[in-house]
Hints:
There is one protein chain. By secondary structure, this protein is of the alpha+beta class. It is 56% helix and 15% strand. It has two domains: 3-205, Endonuclease I-creI (Roll); 233-313, no CATH class. The strands form two sheets. A four-stranded antiparallel sheet has the order 1-2-4-3. Strands 5-6-8-7 form a four-stranded antiparallel sheet. β1 (34-39) and β2 (43-50) form a beta hairpin. The radius of gyration is 35 Å and the shape is rod-shaped.
Amino acid sequence: xxxxxxxxxxxxxxxxxxxxxxxxxxxxxxxxxxxxxxxxxxxxxxxxxxxxxxxxxxxxxxxxxxxxxxxxxxxxxxxxxxxxxxxxxxxxxxxxxxxxxxxxxxxxxxxxxxxxxxxxxxxxxxxxxxxxxxxxxxxxxxxxxxxxxxxxxxxxxxxxxxxxxxxxxxxxxxxxxxxxxxxxxxxxxxxxxxxxxxxxxxxxxxxxxxxxxxxxxxxxxxxxxxxxxxxxxxxxxxxxxxxxxxxxxxxxxxxxxxxxxxxxxxxxxxxxxxxxxxxxxxxxxxxxxxxxxxxxxxxxxxxxxxxxxxxxxx
Length: 314
């Protein structure tokens, strides 16, 4: 099971205690995979169709807890080879349907439509707890998340710009840096920062998945830190080796052309010690001198030797 599926499985079992939050979550599920059909122009029927069993279970549970409506989940196999299935939950009693539609603010009590089914009524998300429920329901129906071992990416795929903008505004209200990108004919709300995705898991109350992601983030950060240190040390070693090679090359050039006789005593001393200890660090070279000299002093003398070698080459 993918990490995204694990999150959805956890969210399918997360039921809000407050009825208004249950209604808000149901509203967003109906918004993205619901359908209203009219029988004899007067009797509405409401159904949702989804390929995710967790979504159908959650919707079925919300119907029972929120409205005390009992219904069935119809399972239809659409691809025997791949095992793909469609789950349909249908409410056929027109009175029950109208109760649901009025509760999610699609219809007034007199039967007048307030908003299209594809738009979430702002009255449903006045409370922060209801906005949390909306994000949870939206992820269940249209969300996905990448494997944290490979990278951080959270997205909600919407059919219209209005839907995407509404979800983005809700996330920004929780200080999550969400963005929108157009992908083919869809509007995708996405978050790519690990901290933002952790916050979204907390908002959706997917606490088990949150802890798993945090553990993976810690391990990943430790690996990155170790790699940075190893790379830095390797670069320093390479730099040190290259510098020592250049110093030895310059000293040998001086020795082969004019000899050490023209060097000042302190420069001759460091030249001889560098040839004797080609792998020593500047600090180690300084401790071999009499009297001892610090790293900056050793570096100054070796630089003088390089300048002298360069002048001889010119």
